[in-house]
């Protein structure tokens, strides 16, 4: 009973650690940073038994590698707490994301996706284009809920279509559209992490990420239209009665997205806050004001508070991954073995294209082996000084973010693929094989745009 009570109140402890990290951002005190690191170690210890098996295995591997690098270097035991403090700010961002999702639910914007996808369509080719564009437009705020809602609706709408064709359509349109939204969303942890590593400006990176998204939508929509164009829908849902209301909600949603991006850019460029911190602290006040403007303040708090508590209490997987990764990255930087990771990049010095292809291959291979892209991102963060020497910060951010996000539809143990495999009753690796060509394509688009930025920067 006591253990269960403590588990339900973990959000208080975690929030206290996040508060200390915010204080440290404005008051750079070494003792405070050590305290944060010690609390980070406690968080890791609490979270290990509560995390999923995959993350336990990954955490053990990361910690074991970190211990090996620790003893191979000249670091002392007093340095260990410092090594667990590095990624606390990423955890703070993750804990705040439920507030944005809660205002979307409170404002009933999750039903907007249903309305946009539910109108009549004559053929699968046209529906594929509409489905993917809708996913890209709304997944930036709706996140995973956009995928689950659209998959349920499309399953119903395509129930008379051949099962194999239907499943292929759904997993392509929803997963690919979802990943294209992540490329530019300030709420996406992979984009935020890449900016965190390189120190680039979000405003500087945003146009290029949007360019990758537009190219990805255009090419994949054309491919989907060609693949599915000959197939007609025998029966479709008709939700046109609320089309006027849907248009109003869509305009509200787009306006809110533009205002949120503007708010983040203001905090980063005018107030001069770190991008990651700017996004994190912008979420709750913006979501609260949004809820007030649409007269949903009460619903927002009723949905948001329990959701935030539950999500923060269940950060265990990310705590194990990110804090173990922080330990590994810091010990690696202090280890003589760092040069073995640097050697392939040094050997490719003067060949930016080969370095980019190496980075893309590393993300894809590690993802297929079950390693989360954040972990791979952290490994490259360990050699960030060398990479920044080879590329401007904006170019490196575009490269890391695009190559990491490109693997999302092809990650066999990723959350979105797992949700889709359950919804469609498919083996995750069947989904991976169907989306692997797309992951390669999106990665190449990212590399192409990154090469283009080299001509400018």
TrEMBL record:
Answer yes or no on keyword Transmembrane helix: yes
TM helices/strands, residue ranges: 12-42, 54-71, 83-104, 180-202, 208-228, 249-269, 275-294, 315-333, 353-375, 396-424, 436-456
Transmembrane helix found in the keyword field = yes
Taxonomically, the superkingdom here is Bacteria
User: What keywords does the record list, in alphabetical order?
Assistant: Membrane, Transmembrane, Transmembrane helix
This one is known as Citrate transporter-like domain-containing protein
């Amino acid at each position: 009973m006591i253990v269960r009570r403590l588990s339900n109140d973990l959000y208080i402890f975690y929030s206290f650690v996040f508060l200390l990290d915010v204080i440290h951002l404005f008051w750079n005190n070494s003792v405070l940073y050590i305290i944060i690191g010690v609390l980070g170690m406690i968080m890791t210890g609490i979270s290990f038994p509560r995390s999923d098996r995959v993350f336990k295995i990954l955490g053990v591997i990361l910690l074991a590698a970190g211990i090996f690098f620790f003893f191979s270097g000249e670091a002392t035991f007093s340095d260990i707490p410092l090594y667990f403090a590095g990624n606390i700010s990423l955890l703070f961002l993750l804990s705040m994301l439920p507030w944005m999702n809660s205002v979307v639910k409170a404002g009933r914007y999750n039903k907007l996706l249903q309305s946009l996808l539910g109108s009549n369509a004559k053929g699968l080719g046209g529906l594929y284009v509409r489905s993917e564009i809708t996913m890209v437009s709304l997944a930036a705020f709706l996140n995973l809920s956009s995928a689950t809602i659209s998959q349920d609706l499309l399953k119903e709408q395509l129930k008379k279509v051949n099962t194999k064709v239907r499943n292929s359509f759904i997993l392509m349109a929803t997963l690919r559209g979802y990943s294209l939204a992540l490329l530019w969303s300030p709420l996406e942890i992979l984009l935020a992490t890449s900016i965190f590593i390189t120190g680039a400006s979000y405003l500087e990176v945003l146009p290029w990420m949007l360019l990758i998204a537009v190219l990805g939508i255009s090419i994949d929509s054309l491919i989907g239209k060609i693949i599915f164009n000959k197939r007609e829908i025998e029966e479709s849902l008709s939700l046109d009665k609320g089309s006027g209301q849907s248009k109003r909600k869509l305009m509200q949603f787009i306006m809110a997205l533009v205002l949120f991006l503007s708010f983040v850019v203001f905090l980063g460029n005018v107030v001069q806050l770190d991008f990651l911190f700017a996004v994190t602290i912008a979420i709750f006040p913006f979501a609260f004001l949004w809820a007030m403007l649409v007269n949903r303040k009460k619903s927002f708090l009723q949905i948001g508070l329990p959701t935030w508590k539950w999500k923060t209490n269940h950060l265990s997987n990310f705590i194990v991954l990110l804090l173990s990764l922080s330990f590994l990255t810091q010990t690696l930087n202090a280890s003589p073995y760092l040069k073995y990771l640097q050697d392939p990049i040094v050997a490719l010095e003067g060949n930016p294209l080969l370095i980019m292809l190496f980075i893309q291959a590393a993300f894809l291979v590690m993802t297929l082996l079950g390693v989360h892209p954040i972990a791979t991102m952290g490994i490259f963060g360990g050699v960030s000084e060398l990479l920044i020497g080879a590329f401007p910060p904006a170019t490196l951010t575009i490269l890391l973010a695009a190559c990491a996000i490109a693997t999302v539809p092809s990650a066999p143990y990723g959350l979105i693929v797992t949700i889709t495999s359950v919804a469609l009753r498919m083996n995750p690796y069947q989904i991976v094989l169907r989306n692997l060509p797309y992951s390669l394509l999106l990665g190449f688009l990212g590399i192409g745009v990154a090469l283009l930025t080299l001509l400018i920067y």
